[in-house]
Design brief:
- The chain is globular, with a radius of gyration of 27 Å.
- Helix 17 packs across helix 19 (390-406).
- The protein has helices at residues 2-48, 50-53, 61-73, 82-89, 96-103, 129-141, 145-166, 170-186, 190-193, 195-198, 214-225, 235-255, 260-276, 281-308, 312-315, 324-329, 362-375, 380-383, 390-406, 408-430, 455-474, 479-502, 511-543, 547-551; strands at 80-81, 118-119.
- It has a domain at 324-425.
- By secondary structure, the chain is mainly alpha-helical.
- A two-stranded antiparallel sheet has the order 1-2.
Length: 552
């Protein structure tokens, strides 16, 4: 009898385990399907919204010219002809799609034989990243504006696939769904519909690329803080996925330097965890293995890119985006700029009679540069080609510390008072929605018309919001997972802010800050939904009368 009972118990346990396993697989398939649906909705809006399709490109001319020079004229990767650059720079106020199509018209667009000087590097101070993206996009899909957006979407899809392969259930998988939902919501903010900001941040452009690095950052940080020991059968796969996400993150840093402080966040998390696990040999060894993968993938990616582009990117200091030029210009966020007497410190009157001016104008950097050129006896005929290069960055760095030494109170006030104000103002201006289009004309009567959103796009927006709610409403989400994701989100916000303290915030340049606000709101709503669902189930199970007792 005991043997029969034991076999019966074992059979029941096996049945229960099997049912639980089947339920877990069904949940995993469901959350992946929801993430895919969220991506499809976002991609559909990216390709169909007229606000996105007809956007300008304020910051991409140099990178696009490098891509086209490589394809049409056979220049080395990252190089460009000055005539090609001028062609796009002169048409900066026209939709990029129109400019690219006209450029390929024989006799009316770009000439068959290149014109101007061959520059071995780009001239915009954005680094080597976007020329690589533009060249790959045009080679894969042809010289079209939508090719740039499609390439961005493919990078996002690749990152999302890697994330879901590594974290395919529960709240961790919900990061992907919430990521694409937040991006979809952003398409309806003033960054996209308001012509005042629309031209400053093209979807798929340089400034938008800070958003491509979000999923790789979550993947890397969640991998580091994952408390579960590595499984032997998935260790190689997990390492490969971690290396892939590191390579994508590195590319986004080279395209958009505002992502760089988040790398410091990864280093900080690694050091804190190493200290925490210093007496736990197995955990410490696993952590060091993950950090080694990140380090090796970073070195390998940088080496491949450095070997593929002209050496001048390194020798001229143009490999990464400029930093000190923007930090110094950021002093213009202080209403007292230029500070009394600061114009006497930088003599550029021979070239720019107006000297330093109020605001964050590029001309202020040029004024400081002319002063540096004269004092260091740099030939004036070569000074123009050195703008936004390594020597130019040196001039900006020296100027910043020179100003900070002489005006410490004003510089400190700029960083701790005026720049935080800019952040708050930037987010409030970005968080405006206008589905109809016409009511905004009163604010900008002289500007271009505000295009209304198609009804289908608005419908897809609400479907995307519903998808995110469904994930948290019916998915198996644990409080521990939510806590880890919330912690990573707060960490990423904390390491996004230094960029805007160093430089300055405006709606077109602080898209990542807006994204984390929307993502955080979505995460909070999801957490409340999980708590409500858990409380409801506990109430139902706690008050239900057992069947056997009801029969008695």
């Amino acid at each position: 009898m005991n043997g029969v009972a034991l076999r019966s118990d074992v059979s029941a346990m096996s049945t229960t385990d099997g049912a639980a396993g089947n339920q877990a697989r069904r949940n995993s398939i469901l959350v992946v399907a929801l993430a895919v649906l969220a991506f499809v909705i976002y991609a559909c809006n990216v390709f169909t919204l007229p606000q996105v399709r007809n956007t300008l490109a304020c910051c991409e001319s140099s990178g696009i010219a490098a891509g086209i020079s490589n394809i049409m004229y056979g220049t080395p990767l990252g190089s460009l002809y000055s005539g090609t650059f001028s062609y796009f720079n002169d048409r900066i106020d026209e939709p990029l799609s129109q400019t690219l199509e006209q450029a390929q018209i024989p006799g009316a667009g770009l000439p068959a034989i290149p014109s101007g000087t061959l520059y071995t590097t780009t001239r915009d101070g954005n680094g080597v990243g976007y020329p690589l993206v533009a060249t790959a996009a045009f080679r894969l899909f042809g010289i079209h504006a939508w090719a740039l957006r499609l390439t961005m979407l493919l990078l996002m899809a690749l990152s999302a696939a890697a994330f879901l392969w590594r974290f395919h259930s529960g709240a961790s998988a919900g990061v992907v769904t919430l990521y694409f939902t937040a991006l979809t919501v952003m398409l309806f903010t003033s960054l996209v519909w308001d012509p005042q900001w629309q031209s400053g941040i093209a979807v798929g452009g340089v400034r938008y690329f800070s958003l491509v690095g979000v999923l790789p950052l979550f993947h890397i940080l969640l991998t580091l803080v994952d408390p579960r020991p590595s499984q032997r059968d998935t260790a190689t796969r997990d390492a490969a996925l971690l290396a892939l996400q590191t390579a994508i993150l590195l590319l986004t840093v080279l395209v958009r330097g505002s992502t760089l402080p988040a790398v410091a966040g990864i280093a900080l998390v690694g050091m804190v965890l190493a200290w925490k696990h210093r007496r736990k040999t197995q955990r410490l060894r696993a952590l060091l293995g993950k950090l080694a993968v990140i380090g090796l993938a970073s070195v390998a990616s940088l080496s491949v890119i450095a070997a593929a582009v002209p050496r001048d990117y390194l020798t001229e200091g143009r490999f990464g985006p400029t930093i000190w030029e923007r930090v110094t210009q950021g002093l213009g966020t202080n209403p007292a700029w230029p500070f009394a007497g600061v114009n006497d410190m930088f003599d550029c009157k021979a070239f720019m009679p107006q000297g330093l001016q109020p605001g964050t104008l590029d001309d202020n950097g040029h004024c400081i540069w002319f002063d540096y050129v004269l004092k260091h006896h740099i030939p004036i005929e070569t000074a123009g080609d050195m703008v936004l290069g390594g020597t130019y960055e040196t001039a900006m760095r020296e100027a910043f510390f020179k100003i900070a030494t002489r005006y410490p109170a004003e510089v400190l006030k700029t960083f701790i008072y005026y720049k935080p104000q800019r952040m708050v103002t930037s987010i409030s201006r970005s968080m405006r929605f206008n589905f109809g289009g016409d009511q905004s004309r009163a604010r900008h009567p002289a500007g271009p018309p505000v295009v209304p959103y198609p009804p289908l796009a608005i419908g897809l927006l609400f479907v995307s919001l519903a998808v995110a709610l469904v994930h948290f409403g019916i998915g198996a989400v644990s409080t521990a997972e939510l806590s880890r994701i919330a912690g990573v989100t707060f960490l990423l916000v904390a390491f996004t802010l230094p960029t805007y303290f160093a430089v300055w915030a405006l709606p077109p340049v602080s898209a990542d800050l807006l994204f984390y606000c929307l993502f955080g709101l979505g995460l909070a709503a999801g957490a409340m939904l999980v708590a409500a669902r858990s409380a409801l189930l506990s109430h139902i199970h706690g008050t239900r009368v057992p069947l056997a007792e009801a029969k008695r």
